[in-house]
Amino acid sequence: MADRLAELREELAGAPAEAVVTNHCYGLFELAALYLSEQPPLLDHARLAIDALGCLVAGLEGRLGDAEPTLRDGLSQLRLAYVQIEGARRAGADVASTAGVNGGTGEAPPDAGGGGAPADDGGG
Fold it and tell me: Is residue 122 part of a domain?
């Protein structure tokens, strides 16, 4: 066990930091996608993973090498998916809560804004 740990440490020390950090970013992407794909989606968990990825991508702008455009695109896709899933969930809850209650028609009320969408750093 100690030999394997020493091997792994040596391998990690020999890898460029850019590659290791990028690999962690991909891990956060996969984690967020997993939470969004659960039934029902685990939106709070997904939002944390998306926001963490956003912090890394924005905070390390220009330092993530060739993977940076892919990470930015992936982050945008995750944010869009989150908003779509969260909006559909909210609309479904609104419809269910108004159906037949006090003469409700079952139609969702207009969105009042706000919401818990993942933070947008304003970038690409």
Answer: no
- Find the domain containing 83 and state its range: 2-98
pTM > 0.85: yes or no: no
84: in domain: yes
Write the pLDDT tens digit of every residue in 68-101.
Answer: 999 999 999 999 999 999 999 999 887 776 665 5
* Contact between residue 64 and residue 29 where contact means Cβ atoms under 8 Å apart: no
Q: Pick from 116, 59, 111, 114: which is nearest to 85 by CA?
A: 116
Judge whether 33 lies within some domain. yes
Distance CA 23, CA 79 (A): 20
- What tokens does 52 get? 């963490």
DSSP assignment, residue 123? Answer: -
Does residue 113 lie within any of the structural domains?
A: no
